[in-house]
Amino acid sequence: MTKILNRGGVDITFLGHSGFIFEKDGHKIAVDPFLTNAPMATRKAEDIIVDDILVTHGHADHIGDSISIAQKNDITITTTFEVARYCQSQGAKAFGVPVGVEQLFSWGKAIFRPAVHCGLLPDNTPFNIATGIIFDFGSIKIYHMGDTAINLDFKLVKEIYKPDMALIPIGGRVNMDIEQAALAAEWLGVKTVVPIHYDLFTQGPVNPQDFQKRLAEKNSGIECVIMEP
Hints:
6 helices
């Protein structure tokens, strides 16, 4: 397994579950940093130093430790409107953004795309929409797919944004299973995928190596990198 992956000049660190840190040119960006009581996590929230946090949607395993990390680092959480309002109610700086519109950062762009998923915030109020996020660093576009069922927006993402890499859920109970994720990777036209979200909320054990094997069986030419925290 790979601990740190470099693609397009971006160092990609897996935090476990669906959490990552991207680092390029001195900028560090966390996405969905779920660490406290997370089965795969090897780091503590208080040790995370980043410049930005982006959150795909309002489930506790994706908001994770965003609030405490944002407070410690005095930074802003960028996410959807309902999730931003929740984070603000918990004492964090947060900025709500519309889906499908480019958001500019010092390190590049982020585009929130709709995900087919739904649920409740940690305070049991519903969030309106879940998302995936395309991180455009100029040298590489990385699509963190969040939690999602398979859907045809992936083909639109390929046509418009042309991502190079996808961080793709394979757990199968609350998002895509291995077969659907393999098809989604083909629809996206990405060169590289990293499987995520296979350690919690599954129906039985899910092995990322099975996903890797399925892509190989399909002769897709897609590189599958299995990462460890």
